[in-house]
Write a structure and sequence with these properties.
3 helices, elongated, five-stranded antiparallel sheet, alpha+beta
Amino acid sequence: MPREESEREHMQNDMKSTIQAAVAEEVGKAMGRQLDLLEKIAQFLGIELGANPTSSALKRPPVPPPSSKRPPAPATGPAPKRPSSVRVRKWVKPKQEAAPQPTRAGPAPQKSRGRPRAAARTAKAAAPSPNPEASVSFEVGQEVRYKQGRGAFTAKVKAVDEKAKTVTVERVSDGKQVMRPFDKVTPA
């Protein structure tokens, strides 16, 4: 019985060594492909390598068994010198600057993206325009032209609101009634 157990252990050890040899050979092949790629990259970058880069792969320590989750250790040895023509830029963390002092009185401007806020647009629209046509008063039944969207239309005045500075007009083409501000309506 003890002899059979020793034979089994011997066979298991032989199998392990055979499997390890096969794995080491495959890893060597895979690393050979990677070394070829690294050599091409080094040539492209102008970095000179040692006399035989593939021979250094053979001198590496054995690869740990696949059950290990650690990546293989990098090859040790002198790093190839970079020619002076290849520049290396290091990333530098930007320095924190002190908050800039406001140069004008009032609240600091808010950073915004996209279109301006509606409050700014309506404040400009509500301001009285220096346009002389804005002071023109309209009469009911008067023929006018007004702008809306991309077009300009001919219409007749139906109602005037002096307080709100708006005119209600009826289009001549289709009879639609629209309320427009004074600055968008001109006498025809």
